[in-house]
Automatic annotation (TrEMBL):
Species of provenance: Cerasibacillus quisquiliarum
Protein name: Acyl-CoA dehydrogenase
Active site residues of this protein: 89 (acyl-thioester intermediate), 338 (proton acceptor), 368 (proton acceptor)
PROSITE patterns to which the protein is assigned, alphabetical: THIOLASE_2, THIOLASE_3
Keyword Acyltransferase: yes
Ranges in a coiled coil: none
Length: 383
């Protein structure tokens, strides 16, 4: 199998739902990221053999294969195809896996993987409408809202409301510190948006982190999913708008083109997990990907485990006996937001840059997914 490398990656800032990107089309937002990716890498658009995009709520501007429409908006030649996939919150991480598999097998040499989600303009579950789960499914599995799954996980692992709120507070503090230090500046593509007065504004900073957040404020928030429960808006990921992408190549092609390589894909995994607990998959996905990579968790310099809800990374930490000092060190989705289809490659771009900053060797990305699934990826920084 051929070695797969990541040559470039970038993302938009993440906007809050009904925030800075509320008047910006999702297909155009992804097109802007694709253009920036090409500009940063210096390759020809026509050399890209496929664009694979993650998107969960495929309606409105995100319907009709947003990967293809976005690449056409960005001025790619008509011979470049695109495909849009939905593996829930891990959609763009799965896009990376599919791209890497195509390259490793020899089918392709140059592929873009990414994702987009406007949770403002294509609200979550709008594509489901009034549809109920199949009775043939519910006879076999108890199907619940993800928030209820988070409640079940918090109770099963014995996490208190205080622990969840403390984790959420720390996410905001880490994110605010990272922004202040400029850790995200290089990876963000500035986007010009127009306000209600028709005046332009450049968006190049994540909108989600709240400097005013305190544990006391978080503790006053009411449970969202269950009376007397522990899961609130404050210890859950934020609904968000954003786009992200990475450029993958075979090592041979990158060498041929004389391109600097940022990281290589070492191993990939995807698992199914209990569809009722739903969000525990990153634990087993991590075990599998570590085995495939033939490394141990102590060898990993940084972990990005998506903060869909605070119990998810906490349960992952507990079961894998991982080092909390390596986890989501620049904040996570609770503070920075979770634009569903874009989150996988957003986190991957941030992970690559963090490894470069600390000169770390291995990084791990794991994301829980709706209906009980998870992807995990291990990358190795190329100095």
């Amino acid at each position: 199998m051929r070695e797969v490398v990541i040559v470039e990656g970038c993302r938009t800032a993440v906007g809050r739902r009904n925030g800075v990107f509320s008047n910006y089309r999702a297909d155009e937002l992804f097109a802007d990221v694709l253009q920036a990716l090409i500009d940063r890498s210096g390759i020809e658009k026509g050399d890209v053999e496929d664009v694979i995009a993650g998107c969960v709520t495929q309606i409105n501007e995100q319907a009709m294969n947003v990967a293809r429409t976005a690449l056409l908006i960005a001025g790619f030649p008509i011979h470049v195809p695109g495909v849009t996939i939905d593996r829930q919150c891990g959609s763009s991480q799965q896009a990376v896996h599919f791209a890497a598999q195509a390259i490793a097998s020899g089918d392709m040499d140059i592929v873009i993987a990414g994702g987009v989600e406007s949770m403002t303009r294509a609200p979550m579950f709008k594509n489901v409408g009034e549809t109920k789960p199949s009775k043939r499914l519910t006879k076999q599995h108890k199907i619940v809202n993800q928030g209820i799954s988070a409640e079940l996980i918090a109770n099963k692992w014995g996490f208190s409301r205080r622990q969840l709120d403390e984790y959420a507070y720390q996410s905001h503090q880490l994110a605010l510190s990272a922004i202040e230090k400029g850790h995200y500046a290089d990876e963000i593509v500035p986007i010009k948006v127009m306000d209600e007065n028709g005046e332009g504004k450049i968006v190049d900073v994540d909108e989600g982190p709240r400097p005013e957040t305190t544990i006391d404020i978080l503790s006053e928030l009411q449970p969202v999913f269950k009376k007397g429960g522990k899961i609130t808006a404050g210890n859950s990921s934020q609904m968000s708008d954003g786009a992200s992408a990475v450029l993958l190549m075979s090592k041979e092609k990158a060498d041929e083109l004389g391109l600097k390589q940022k990281a290589k894909i070492v191993a990939r995994s995807v698992v199914g997990s209990d569809p009722t607990l739903m969000l525990t998959g990153p634990i087993e996905a991590t075990r599998q990907v570590l085995k495939k990579a033939n490394v141990s968790l102590v060898d990993i310099a940084r972990y990005e485990v998506n903060e869909a809800f605070a119990p998810i990374p906490l349960a992952w930490l507990h079961d894998l006996q991982a080092d909390v000092e390596k986890l989501n060190v620049n904040g996570g989705a609770i503070a920075l937001g979770h634009p569903l289809g874009a989150t996988g490659t957003k986190l991957l771009v941030s992970l690559i840059n963090e490894l470069d900053r600390i000169e770390g060797k291995y990084g791990l990305l794991a994301i829980c997914e709706g209906m009980g699934m998870a992807n995990a990826t291990i990358i190795e920084r190329i100095p």
